[in-house]
Amino acid sequence: MNKTMCVIGLGYIGLPTAVTFANYGVKVHGVDVNPAAVRSIQEKKLHIEEPGLQERLNKAVDEGYLTASTTPQEADVFIVAVPSPINADKTANLEYVREATKSIVPYLRKGNLVILESTVPPKTVERVMIPELVKSGLDIGTELYVAHSPERVIPGRIFEELINNGRIIGGINKKSAEMTKELYELFVKGPIHLTDATTAELVKVMENTYRDVNIAFANELAKLAEELDVNIWEAIHYANFHPRVNIHFPGPGVGGHCIAVDPWFLVELGGDKAQMIHLARNINDGMPLFTAQKTQKILNENKIAGGKVAVLGLAFKGNVDDMRESPSLEVIHELQQLGLEVVSFDPHIKENNHPTQTQNFEEAVNDADILLVLTDHKEFKEYNPLTITPKHKIVLDTKNCLERDKWKEAGFQFHLLGDSKNI
Ligand code: SAJ
What we know:
With 423 residues, this protein is of the alpha/beta class. The protein folds into two domains: 4-204, NAD(P)-binding Rossmann-like Domain (Rossmann fold, 3-Layer(aba) Sandwich), CATH 3.40.50.720; 230-423, Rossmann fold (3-Layer(aba) Sandwich), CATH 3.40.50. 39% of the residues lie in helices and 14% in strands. The protein is built from 16 helices and 13 strands. It has helices at 14-23, 35-42, 53-62, 95-104, 124-133, 158-164, 174-184, 197-225, 232-239, 262-270, 275-285, 287-301, 327-337, 361-365, 378-382, 404-409; strands at 4-8, 27-31, 66-69, 77-80, 112-116, 144-148, 167-171, 192-196, 308-312, 341-345, 370-373, 394-397, 413-416. The chain has an eight-stranded mixed sheet with strand order 3-2-1-4-5-6-7-8, sandwiched between helices. A five-stranded parallel sheet has the order 10-9-11-12-13. Strand 1, helix 1 and strand 2 (27-31) form a beta-alpha-beta unit. Helix 1 (14-23) packs across helix 3 (53-62). The longest helix is centred in the middle third of the chain and has 29 residues, at 197-225. It is elongated. The site of ligand SAJ has 21 residues, from helix 8. It is an enzyme of class 1 (oxidoreductase). Keywords: NAD, Oxidoreductase. Belongs to the UDP-glucose/GDP-mannose dehydrogenase family.
């Protein structure tokens, strides 16, 4: 396809998207306000860990299909893939989307297509982007086309899911949606559904809100199970054999910049019409404290005063290097509030980004009174407990990722979040 493209935002979504379009013959110019992100393309040195990204980036740059700078340039298609976080008061922060939209206005020409990939509250295209795009002087819908095409990829499997997942595309009119579909058909093998922009915005937020509410349900079941002589992981496993049941899994909290964020868009828009969504957020945000209190309870039952906790896992979920919005940081804060000493370790976080963090596993566990597993990194599953010699052989697994029997045979007192059956 001899199209040219300008991708605004070179983060977890923008960079892989820019690289993929470039690998499929589109001449792409990547733009980011952060010079380090621009350099990561120019020098082919990655600022994010994602399987397959390095070789695809090299190919795109070496073949001349991908360039980068801090300023946009004229193109047939503009993709906006910038952060859409929430403020401290949980309201949507759409300033990045607004600024990115403003930045492309001087470069817009008749016939151009602008696509928003960022996950945003419904009505953002209409209320935030269009008012900026009209300043181009182009007639929206006939001279300038606008659509929303949210991504559905999971960090760690981005390229597989970019290609195979279906997409929902919402246009400000039919032609905008169809032009966008034609573009993504370059590499998307999954079904592409067309609708209006607001519906597409809502669909994406619904998908993540469904997951958050479902996880909150699992977390509440885990708290119930703690008093019932039940292992909730076993119970969920059996319940999910029902053809129409898909209960998610409990954990120490919900992290990342998606599942923990997107439901707040609906809470802000819906007010008292979004009570369950709001409650689910509060349940999930309460799990770090619940985890810290369970840790304290185990230490008290073992008559260990004060105590040192070795936190294993700082990333927001297993097998990624992303600590943004990680529940582990909240768990550590709550442990410290309870007066416990904390040392943390994460094999995927290669630099110390937290005061409690060490790069040395032995240093983290050696004189620990309890090991607290907060992410299901594959490395943790492979540890040999016979070689781990903490001060007290006690472990609390919050992700059901350790082999209980292996650890018990090595002399560990084994605890599992949501399990009061196998004490
Ligand atoms: N988690 C649980 N229990 C579960 C599943 C997840 O506690 O059963 C926790 C994880 O540990 C993590 C958080 O929830 O802290 C989010 O995990 P995630 O696997 O949902 O990871 P994300 O946020 O990277 O990806 C989600 C995905 N959305 C859905 O699965 C509906 C992904 O497809 C989206 O593209 C992504 O959000 C996004 O960017 O919106």
